[in-house]
Amino acid sequence: MGSKNKLKRFKENETFSNVYQPKRDELVDAKFKLKGNWRTTVFNNNNPIVLELGCGKGEYSVALAKKYPNKNFIGIDIKGARFWRGAKTAIEEHIPNVAFLRTQIELINYAFAENEVDEIWITFPDPQIKYKRTKHRMTNAVFLSKYKQVLKPEGVVNLKTDSEFMHGYTLGLLHGAGHEVLYANNDVYKQEGSPEDVTAIQTFYESQYLKQNKPITYIKFKIK
């Protein structure tokens, strides 16, 4: 994407009523007014909140919002030029129960209050295979502790990935730390009885992976 195009998208994001872009200081210094108030201020209801972390173009968030009008969805990504597409689609199609937050995933506990979130989706994260990159893996122990802070006690996390490495790493970590694995599958499209939310919604990249016969893996778990 050219820098001109990016700039145009950044400008347009600023006009979207469903996009929130707090500065880092605003979050860290506890000045972010939406923390603890997402339901009442943004969605004007008391419905469950579901986050998509590293939402990219926001395809999953928008598709889930269409499917579940009685839930609130928030796509989170640091790259606003990417989720511009999802935000624009939601406005054009009048989908009121989806919003987008531009921030780093590691600041999630500054953006949401304790027990404010019902469910988390992590869709196709960078597996960060190199050892030096382990601190950026979105299912490492540090990230899981942040998710636990914002999730309700019964809240669940979904990991959908084309990376067998990420699938195996996460399963090992979950079992090792005593977290509760509710469902795990290393090839959801070839397994009968796979959850519908996992197979019915596909991102653009996911459809490309499937054309290459890459297995799509899935884990649903609770953080203890």
Description:
The longest helix is centred in the C-terminal third of the chain and has 14 residues, at 164-177. This protein has a single domain (3-222), classed as Vaccinia Virus protein VP39 (Rossmann fold, 3-Layer(aba) Sandwich), CATH 3.40.50.150. The protein starts with a helix and ends with a strand. Strands 1-4-3-2-5-6-8-7 form an 8-stranded mixed beta sheet, with helices on both faces. The chain is α/β, with parallel strands linked by helices and 224 residues long. Helix 1 (3-15) packs across helix 5. 37% of the residues are buried. The protein has helices at residues 3-15, 24-28, 38-43, 59-67, 80-92, 108-111, 141-150, 164-177, 196-200, 204-211; strands spanning 19-20, 49-53, 72-77, 98-102, 117-123, 151-161, 180-185, 217-222. The radius of gyration is 17 Å and the shape is globular.
